[in-house]
Amino acid sequence: MNPYEAYPPIDRAHPMRWAENVPGPYYVSTNCVDCGNCSRHCPGCFARHSFPNHWYVKRQPETPEEVKRMEKAIICCKGKAIMKVEN
């Protein structure tokens, strides 16, 4: 068995984007170092995948306050892994 078969798939449209991220402008890239800062700043929008250990966007921010928290999470991300797709 290939040891990499256990890894979750990567979104082919955005090669650095984990497939678990919900559609929308914000996502966590494969640069995630599993520090958990994102969930501390915007707890309702992130979830943790256990293998390989990384975070992903489980829900896009819905309120101005959540958008502000998401932007703070981007700034505080140790791996610079939280991305925003500009339209």
From TrEMBL:
Pfam families reported for this sequence: Fer4_13 (PF13370)
Signal sequence coordinates: none
Boundaries of every 4Fe-4S ferredoxin-type domain copy: 23-51
InterPro entries tied to this protein: 4Fe4S_Fe-S-bd (IPR017896), 4Fe4S_Fe_S_CS (IPR017900)
Ranges in a coiled coil: none
Protein name (Swiss-Prot/TrEMBL): 4Fe-4S ferredoxin-type domain-containing protein
